[in-house]
């Protein structure tokens, strides 16, 4: 039975913004294929059009399905994509150094992209079942991370650090929307931040500072490392004794601080061991791209050059130099925003930001108006995915984020990324469409 609204409930803002972003993406994928002689060197834009048409059909189909029907299938969907991730790790094709593709001949998919939707659905299912009363507990928080850690591990083993890092903010945003304690979220974010700092510092000393800083010996000398770890552990124990013995609340925050430092300090050597040389170099050149200007720093330097040369209104469509002289590697995928900024300038960046902002704002409203908690969590998961992709990719193009290989959804070349974004939009439209359906 339908209440208050017609069964035909089209979300025009989402459709217009989505179509506009896809069309702009196709234009600049085409532009990226034009060389300095004005000749077309690739048919990527044709493939993108085909993927866009198929993806649009999938988006419409998903939007018409009542999202509540997916609730009980969420574990199966998650399990299916998880199986594909495991299978890819052993039998997948290697592209750009990562074994992350499944396919036949030139046709392939990237299961790690679709796994984002699997995580969104299963986490929405679990948080809905947990209920409002238990959502602030440690158990719900712990189980939620058990949902994202296994697929993260498989993607990291491919290795594809960029895609794996998207899973974490999806979970954090969804947990926050569900009502998880902010302190738990702050704890996770702080551990990630300090682990990154402790991981990069020794390499920064060696490659950028090019000297020796005595205190940095704690990262390299086993004796000092053991002493610092032991000191942090002892401080944590004393803080916990004060918390439970004296019942003073400030000991909780002291214990939390020592726990963050201890976990981060211990994880950092493992991160340095796990990260490959080119991944570590991406972090180093983020701090100073001129450490390796013709190697790892080349992408950032050329991207900044492209964005800066665009000025306020750009050089004009098909008039850019960085892309047409092929200075930017992966220019139709990772650095599509750089090409757009060069040819359409600051105004083009504002246009893209406005379209993304419209989708995200509309998504927040849909989440707020959703008929069920399950639907609200799906909406939050989808807009979190899109928001993080936008922030990291654009930040990467303008030098505010390290290069991670995260595409700009809707615009970057690639069928798996585009289909994931469009399926996510289908879920968002389904939540919007069925908010009056009983």
From TrEMBL:
The lineage of its organism: Bacteria, Pseudomonadati, Spirochaetota, Spirochaetia, Spirochaetales. Keywords: Cell membrane, Cell shape, Cell wall biogenesis/degradation, Glycosyltransferase, Membrane, Peptidoglycan synthesis, Transferase, Transmembrane, Transmembrane helix. InterPro entries: Cell_cycle_FtsW-rel_CS, FtsW/RodA, RodA/MrdB. Belongs to the SEDS family. MrdB/RodA subfamily. Peptidoglycan polymerase that is essential for cell wall elongation. Pfam families: FTSW_RODA_SPOVE. It is an enzyme of class 2 (transferase). GO terms for cellular component: cell division site; plasma membrane. PROSITE patterns: FTSW_RODA_SPOVE. GO terms for biological process: cell division; cell wall organization; peptidoglycan biosynthetic process; regulation of cell shape. Its EC number is 2.4.99.28. It is a multi-pass membrane protein. GO terms for molecular function: lipid-linked peptidoglycan transporter activity; peptidoglycan glycosyltransferase activity. The chain crosses the membrane at residues 12-33, 45-65, 77-95, 107-126, 138-157, 183-202, 223-244, 250-275, 344-365, 377-398, 410-431. This is Peptidoglycan glycosyltransferase RodA.
């Amino acid at each position: 039975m339908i209440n208050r609204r017609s069964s035909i409930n089209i979300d025009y803002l989402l459709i217009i913004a989505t179509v506009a972003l896809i069309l702009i993406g196709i234009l600049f994928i085409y532009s990226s294929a034009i060389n300095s002689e004005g000749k077309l060197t690739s048919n990527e834009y044709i493939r993108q059009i085909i993927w866009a048409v198929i993806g649009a059909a999938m988006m419409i189909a998903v939007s018409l399905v009542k999202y509540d029907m997916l609730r009980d299938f969420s574990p199966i969907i998650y399990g299916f994509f998880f199986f594909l991730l495991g299978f890819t790790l052993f039998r997948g094709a290697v592209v750009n150094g990562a074994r992350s593709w499944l396919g036949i001949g030139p046709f392939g998919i990237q299961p790690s992209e679709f796994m984002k939707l699997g995580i969104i659905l299963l986490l929405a299912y679990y948080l809905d079942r947990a209920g409002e009363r238990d959502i602030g507990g440690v158990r719900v928080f712990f189980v939620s991370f058990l949902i994202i850690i296994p697929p993260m591990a498989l993607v990291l083993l491919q290795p594809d650090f960029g895609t794996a890092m998207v899973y974490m903010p999806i979970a954090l945003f969804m947990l926050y929307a569900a009502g998880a304690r902010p302190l738990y979220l702050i704890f996770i974010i702080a551990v990630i931040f300090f682990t990154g700092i402790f991981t990069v510092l020794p390499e920064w000393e060696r490659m950028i500072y090019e000297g020796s800083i005595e205190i940095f010996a704690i990262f390299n000398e086993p004796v000092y490392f053991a002493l610092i770890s032991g000191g942090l552990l002892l401080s944590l124990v004393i803080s916990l004794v004060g918390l439970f013995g004296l019942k003073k609340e400030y000991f909780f925050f002291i214990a939390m601080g020592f726990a963050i430092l201890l976990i981060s300090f211990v994880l950092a050597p493992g991160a340095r061991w796990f990260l490959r040389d080119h991944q570590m170099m991406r972090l180093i050149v983020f701090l100073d791209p001129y450490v390796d200007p013709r190697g790892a720093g080349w992408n950032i330097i050329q991207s900044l050059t492209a964005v800066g040369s665009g000025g306020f209104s750009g050089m004009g469509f098909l008039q850019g130099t960085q892309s047409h002289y092929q200075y930017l590697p992966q220019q139709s995928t990772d650095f599509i925003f750089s090409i757009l900024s060069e040819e359409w300038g600051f105004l083009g960046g504002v246009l893209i930001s406005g379209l993304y902002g419209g989708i995200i704002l509309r998504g927040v409203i849909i989440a707020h108006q959703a008929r069920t908690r399950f639907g609200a969590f799906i909406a939050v998961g989808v807009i979190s995915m899109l928001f993080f992709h936008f922030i990291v990719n654009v930040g990467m193009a303008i030098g505010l984020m390290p290069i991670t290989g995260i595409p700009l959804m809707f615009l970057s070349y690639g069928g798996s990324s585009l289909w994931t974004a469009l399926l996510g939009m289908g879920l968002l439209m389904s939540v919007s469409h069925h908010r009056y359906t009983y």
